[in-house]
Records
---
Amino acid sequence: MSAVTSTRVVLASRPHGEPTQDNFRTETIELPDLADGQVLLRTVYLSLDPYMRGRMNDAKSYAPPVEVGDVMVGGTVSQVVESRSLRIEPGAYVLGYTGWQSHAVADVNSLRAVDPNRAPLSTALGVLGMPGFTAYAGLLKIGRPKPGETVVVAAAAGPVGSAVGQIAKIHGARAVGIAGGAEKCAYLRDELGFDAAIDHRAEDFADQLKAAVPDGIDVYFENVGGPVTAAVLPLLNFFARIPVCGLVSQYNLVSAPEGPDRLPAFMGLVLTKSLTVRGFIQSEFIQELSGDFERDASKWLAEGRLKHREDVVDGLEKAPDAFIGMLHGKNFGKLVVQVGPEQD
Ligand SMILES: NC(=O)c1ccc[n+]([C@@H]2O[C@H](COP(=O)([O-])OP(=O)(O)OC[C@H]3O[C@@H](n4cnc5c(N)ncnc54)[C@H](OP(=O)(O)O)[C@@H]3O)[C@@H](O)[C@H]2O)c1
């Protein structure tokens, strides 16, 4: 039998600032034969997420960088083509971390079964997967919204932000979303039921935000940093909580922003307003909360209380462009690449 090949996107060079097509290279490799306990996978969906920008840098972080020449990392939903494990049969669907490639050999222990009858396969990468869990854990463990409080979240039309706002509403809070452009803001208000949605690109963004939170802000779910955070800070209430989830406006920066050092004023605010500012990586809560999340999110999804939107890009070759665009808001909903058909 001829060897199985995989088409894959590797990191060709490290970006300086915004990534470009030149930082990626597509190549085809032969996959090794399966060892006991391994499976051959055919990728169906690849998740594109902002954290991947950090992995392209040669910098110390909570996870090691992708080495130049290595396949880009990423969550995937795949179908098992061949199995050398009694635990999993050909035809089954699995959630894995096999990256930007058409096929992969993986240890069965690194995979989780995905039931295609429970929900559409791609939701395992979005509303029922890592981004949904991030919203759930960060909001409920750190944000702790109470009924009647005001929760503000940016990147609100994305998978994390849209779940944050809706879960805040489920818990009786007011949800105010910040997003780029009128279409995303209308979606937040009209389809997801946010109480208000503000376009961060509007010239009077700070004034509009102030008007949208007449009782101040009790929870600011931090996804973006930069000018959005600067507009939020003066509106925080005493004892406000800030789950620091992401800082996507800063991922492509190559130097510190100009202007006076803002740290002393920020620390003064933390002190005088008794703020709780707590960063987190979703994986720290998996053991404690993944069961609760699976129960609640599936129920809310089935009841129509947790809605979601996907932005599906067709073909692995489009992954670099789609990823670059996501870092400045071209995606509308959870960005996934359809690498292969659901049914072979
Ligand atoms: N801590 C964790 O464990 C964890 C896990 C998952 C995700 N995250 C973080 O959560 C955040 C959201 O992730 P996601 O997967 O839901 O991404 P996403 O919302 O699908 O994509 C990122 C969005 O950020 C917005 N954005 C980009 N530049 C911006 C800027 N300068 N100012 C304001 N908004 C900007 C864009 O939306 P607009 O068009 O609305 O501007 C863009 O669509 C990211 O910061 C990510 O790194 C953290």
---
Amino acid sequence: MNIVGKFKNFINKTLLKTPGVEFLRKNKDLNTRKKHINFWLNRAKKNKSLNRFFFTEASGDLRQLTYSRNDEDFKISNEMFESLSNNGLLIIENALPEIERIKIISYFDELKNNSKFSKKWLKKPHNPHFFNEVNEMMGQISIKNFQFLNEYSMKFSREIYGKIVEPTVEFRYLKQKNNTKEKQVRGATYLHTDRFLPHFKVYYTPFKIEIDDAPLEYLLSSHKINRNFINFYLNANNFDETDHQFENFKLDKKIVCVPKNSLYVAFTNGFHKRSQFNSNSERSLVFLQYVQRFNKLDYLF
Ligand SMILES: [Fe+2]
């Protein structure tokens, strides 16, 4: 990356970064929190697309979460977007043509082997050491290398944010060290929220994910920004299931076990976690995130 690119990245990651819970961690005073949360949520609410997905009420009748791609020219139907708006989660099976799935597997092979990295990684893949009991290799790459994944990404970001936003793309290969159930880790295997502003991630797995392979767990409709949601952020300390106000979220939980070649979208301002690994398992998951390029400027102007 050239110097201008690096500078832009730096500004995006610091000055322009979408507010998370850092401010709330530093400020426990109720009124200070209220002002901060109201200010940013009012900005978000003005965006028609965000309003549709995050600020409308969830209805109990649209509960279908899983859809399947069955032709080459795959459309994300209005019903699917409605389901996503309602549940905060959408699963698409048979998501990519086999040729792109194979391509993605070849990238994971490099992470798995942890030897010569010959693909066009943005920087050398490394272990970020997030977990004690799990080895991880993470590589970042441009979405432009993956035509179909990029099409999904454009469709989702256009619908959810109201404009096409280029995602950061992380390939994460996780391999558990032991064969017993992993201990719980804060911010990962506790149900938690990522931020109070609308937030989403797209995930793609080339392989099936079963219960021992650390599937995503998601509390359906917990992304809806209503009185209960705001009340949680006004009072929370840990921003996870250990907070007292969590007991007000009596919602159904979905464990996202999926067949090979599945893509799913989750609104991660709602409650989610990865399940704990078991049986020396592994997981290969692509993460698309938008928060770096949909930032404060998009909320303010
Ligand atoms: Fe998270």
